[in-house]
Amino acid sequence: MIRIASGLERAFARNGFAEPSVEDLKEAAGVSLRTLYKYTPSRDEMVYTALDHRQTRYIERVFANLPGDRDLALYTIIDRVAIWMSSEASHGCLFHAAVAAAPHDEKLRALLLDHKAEVADCAAKATGLDGCQPDLTLILEGLTQSWPLHGEAAVSSAKRLCSALLHEVKTPS
Question: Which residue among 38, 77, 93, 162 has its CA within the 20 to 30 Å range from the CA of 31?
Answer without folding.
Answer: 93
